[in-house]
Specification:
5-stranded antiparallel beta sheet; Aspartate Aminotransferase, domain 1; elongated; 193 residues
């Protein structure tokens, strides 16, 4: 069933189809199990996420879920954004890059599998280390139900909201984002649930 979802994903990809198909083959050659998560092909080892294939406008990438723990001996891993703590990507803009790096990609995948076998975890910054906009602090102070609901969310969901609110440059925009998200927070959902 997962293979059919991945087949459909690749068939619908308007860009990077060939490149993502090559990455898929490499992941399967490494003995990973193919799944479909977060609307992308995901490859696991003993039900632990190892890599994800995803596509962007400018490139496609192989994302290592615990990439920060990899030894990047070829200096090819990229931190997608400054807020990404654990994951790292290898980016591609053509299929020849993947063909040329196949043995290196496999080495990184095998290293990621060993990280899973060893049970290593990435130490993430606590939610308290993320900036909480004043507008949201005020909302939490004036609405005890909102405060309780927010504190009940998983740390990842809390960070998602804090980053989303903080990215707005103007106070008015932050307030608008907070107002729109209050019902979702009260329902115990994350920003993208």
């Amino acid at each position: 069933m997962n293979s059919k979802l991945v087949d459909r994903f690749l068939a619908r990809a308007k860009k990077w189809n060939e490149e993502m198909s090559l990455l898929r083959k490499i992941c399967l050659d490494c003995g990973l199990t193919e799944t479909y998560k977060w609307m992308h092909p995901c490859y696991t080892f003993q039900e632990k996420n190892v890599v994800l294939i995803h596509n962007f406008k400018e490139y496609c990438a192989l994302l290592f879920h615990k990439g920060v723990l990899l030894k990047d001996t070829n200096d090819i891993l990229v931190q997608q954004t400054e807020n990404v703590q654990a994951a790292r990507q290898i980016r591609f803009t053509n299929s020849q890059q993947i063909i040329d790096l196949e043995s290196v990609i496999k080495t990184y995948i095998y290293q990621a599998i060993e990280i899973e076998k060893a049970g290593l975890e990435v130490k993430l910054k606590p939610t308290s280390a993320f900036e909480m906009p004043d507008e949201f602090k005020k909302a939490l102070e004036t609405n005890s139900d909102l405060k309780k609901a927010f504190e009940s969310l998983t740390p990842g969901r809390q960070r998602g909201y804090l980053l989303f609110f903080s990215q707005a440059k103007q106070s008015k925009t932050r307030e608008s984002r907070i107002e729109k998200c209050i019902p979702t927070i009260l329902n115990g959902k994350g920003l993208k649930d």
